[in-house]
């Protein structure tokens, strides 16, 4: 985007959520309007959402994007207001009255639930919960988490591979990465002897990135097995990427013979139901042609995607106005939506950067074309209502 | 008049941020312009200018998304880049075996078309979570030709 004339009127902007989509949106809007007031709200004390609490701690290169975002708050004049939940501490309506532009960037944080898993059955954990726990998210506790010695991971995306890596990384390495001692103890207590990682797709269509699979070869004392690796994608599903099949075959071929831990990839199985009375003792899968696979397991970890949390105080659909155009990020007059909350839980951080760029352009166009009148006072109008405007400068991860 | 032209290829924005810093550093002394590779027209390559190429690596050693159209255009149009001088700075993460490979793809293409790489091949390894900017500014001092 081109730099706007600094003399031109620029809007006051509130962004709800300081994860990658929110921060990239702030970045693009700041490039467009050097002098506009831009405030990023987050319900937590510390910014960066998924970058801080979702990206695995051994992926420091990916987490480094947080340092890009530090610049927003340290030198680019963007304000971070933490410990302020929009919808609870301040209403969205009040925010919209105070700011010309309000952007919802709260993401999708809830683990998509597994069909056929009884509520309250111990031993079923969502991948989002586990990665937040490993990353020290204030809402997650180790209480009640028992992985056991045989763990079944449902799903074969990058988040599932993150779990494999985190579960099998030596305790000393996790501690060195800053993972809390009680979390390291919980992950290692089994100790885990076998991980079943089960997905419904043929290997070329699986969701993981090849680089992530190759990375698993560095785990010490692990042998890899694969079932259904020869399966081809169903007709009409596309060819997928053969490199995924090769990457798994390479893991199997390169496995040490005397390893004490195994990781077993199984392709072509959809979860049917979880068994057990008080806690999980098994999980049953079905193939496309109706065969059944029963796996005995101590715990089930679901990595099958994310959804809007039912407890989120601001639900997207409740705020769609008559002029909503979700494709461009428009929810209502002066209200926009970006990132996963806009387009669903697909794509990595760079995909959300592209989304932020697109929505920032939507906003800039609306202001430039006069569709969006400006002149609202900004943060000063709501500051008195925020009891303890807990502002925190972001700290480095 | 001779310009310094920065071409960046980015995925998560780190290479763009490096380009922004390079512009800030150079702009007091000489004319400088930065382009996202996806916005750069190959017909604008000019032997009068000096090019700084900043490129990250994506996935399994692939070009980042904003460098992909540029790479494809070089392959298809095969412009004669004889007389074009450039220096290159690659971003990557040595946690992956394809560390810094994205910049190498661009480097090979430019060289094959007749362009000449000058100065040290700059690199930054993000595996420790550090930003590339300080490395890039240090590299800049080494490669920058007198104005």
UniProtKB/TrEMBL annotation, chain A:
EC number from the UniProt entry: 1.18.1.2
InterPro entries reported in the protein's UniProt record: FAD/NAD-bd_sf, FAD/NAD-binding_dom, Ferredox_Rdtase
Entry keywords, A to Z: FAD, Flavoprotein, NADP, Oxidoreductase
Catalytic activity annotation: 2 reduced [2Fe-2S]-[ferredoxin] + NADP(+) + H(+) = 2 oxidized [2Fe-2S]-[ferredoxin] + NADPH
Enzyme type, top EC level: oxidoreductase
Cofactor(s) needed by this chain: FAD
A family per Pfam: Pyr_redox_2
PANTHER family according to UniProt: GLUTAMATE SYNTHASE 1 [NADH], CHLOROPLASTIC-LIKE
Protein name per its UniProtKB record: ferredoxin--NADP(+) reductase
TrEMBL record, chain B:
Domain Flavodoxin-like per the UniProt entry, residue ranges: 4-144
Keyword Flavoprotein: yes
Keyword Aminoacyl-tRNA synthetase (UniProt): no
Lineage: superkingdom: Bacteria
Descriptive protein name: FMN-binding protein MioC
Keyword terms, alphabetized: Flavoprotein
Pfam family, one: Flavodoxin_1
PROSITE patterns: FLAVODOXIN_LIKE (PS50902)
Organism: Frondihabitans cladoniiphilus
